[in-house]
Amino acid sequence: MSTTYRPLTETDAVAYVKERGFFPRDAALTCREIGDGNLNLVFHLVDPKSGQSLILKQALPYARVVGESWPLTLDRARIEAEALRIEGELAPGLVPKVIHYDADLALTVMEDLSDHIVMRKGLMARTVYPRFAEHMATFLARTLFFTSDLYLSPEEKKAKQRAFINPEMCKITEDLVFSHPYYNADTNHFNPLIRDAVEALWQNGALKREVARLKEAFMTKAQALIHGDLHTGSIMVKADSTKVIDPEFAFYGPMGFDPGAVFANLLLSYASHEGHTPNEAERRDFQAWLLETIEAIWRGFAEQFAELWAEHVKDEMWNAPGYREAYLRAVLQDAVGFAGCKMMRRVIGLAHVADLETIPDPAVRATCEKLALAIGQALVLRRETVQRIEDLTALVRDVAAERVSR
Ligand SMILES: Nc1ncnc2c1ncn2[C@@H]1O[C@H](COP(=O)(O)OP(=O)(O)O)[C@@H](O)[C@H]1O
Ligand SMILES: CSC[C@H]1O[C@H](OP(=O)(O)O)[C@H](O)[C@@H]1O
């Protein structure tokens, strides 16, 4: 097979893994393209004889969701494979194993996680994942700490930063998360029943100023190698296992962006269940679990991060009295602000979430979307009042109570 880039078909994917000996010679392979994300091809290869299976993920030279009119760098496949390798070393068992990376075809062969479910789908079905908070706290603490200036030498950190320069993918986030949702951009689309709320947001100068500060932090605060798109569609789960996938947006950015993405998507689920779950007791129970999960992620993250700091940080200045606490408080406030932006973009911007989109009645959906926008705005505007994680969940409860009582 030629190694010049071309998008593979299912037949090509079978030939590719057979030629390279990833399956036994007598394998009777089946292959299905299962990609449901916005960008790439994902092939699921199964050999029923041996019971072995693999995933082959290939970048397309354009954004799948829009088409060839939106060209996109294939270098994102390298970024994803390298980030998965680093995350796998720093947080063992919390990402799929990378088996093979092919730069010419912009593809990665990796462990098949089909015994897990995409977390967004699990949350839509109100499934509780008892070990998710613990796993996510470990993933965040270890990947962020060990790739930061707190652990690496300045030379090592800058070499890693150079390897993860990812301008095209960052530009997508700069546009779709931090710019377009806040004015009448062509890429936006939203439920016509929330136009009043969206137009009020476009007129809110204080909000736009704070989003601009967060955008600048995203573009300039090169604290750690972040995943860069850690929503619940990029997390696969089962009862006792959590796997983070899809780090093609990875770059050196602000630590708070990753926990912020997780919080935003748990809160989008929270807002969506106002519409999905008419039974009040079931709704309250699940929403309570979502907020407890946010608290447990942050507590576990902050505790492990502080332990890593105590064990590994030798620099006199990083150990100045009170600096560690101030550092973690700033990461929390960044996370809260980024979470707010990431909630609003999923209601107004180009890429929405199934949690909200699957609510069939537009009026019911509008109530949930307005709640998501109200929480998102409060998180951005009031993030600097958040000193502890309980301040964030209290803020969410206050906004929700105020809207539901209307
Ligand atoms: N390692 C894997 N094991 C099983 N399924 C996977 C794996 N990686 C991706 N998938 C499936 O493919 C879908 C799209 O993958 P993703 O990496 O999110 O692609 P994109 O970058 O296009 O968003 C996921 O939602 C999931 O259903
Ligand atoms: C045109 S890209 C839109 C959106 O899609 C990405 O998510 P995913 O790769 O998981 O589908 C990312 O969130 C981008 O902002």
From TrEMBL:
Keyword presence, Transferase: yes
One GO biological process term: L-methionine salvage from methylthioadenosine
GO molecular function: ATP binding; S-methyl-5-thioribose kinase activity
Domain of life: Bacteria
Reactions performed catalytically: 5-(methylsulfanyl)-D-ribose + ATP = 5-(methylsulfanyl)-alpha-D-ribose 1-phosphate + ADP + H(+)
Function: Catalyzes the phosphorylation of methylthioribose into methylthioribose-1-phosphate.
InterPro entries: Aminoglycoside_PTrfase, Kinase-like_dom_sf, Methylthioribose_kinase
Binding sites annotated in the UniProt record for ATP: N40, K57, E111, D112, L113, D246, P247, E248
Domain Aminoglycoside phosphotransferase: 30-263
Protein name listed in UniProt: Methylthioribose kinase
Keywords (A to Z) from UniProt: Amino-acid biosynthesis, ATP-binding, Kinase, Methionine biosynthesis, Nucleotide-binding, Transferase
Documented EC number(s): 2.7.1.100
Species the sequence originates in: Calditerricola satsumensis
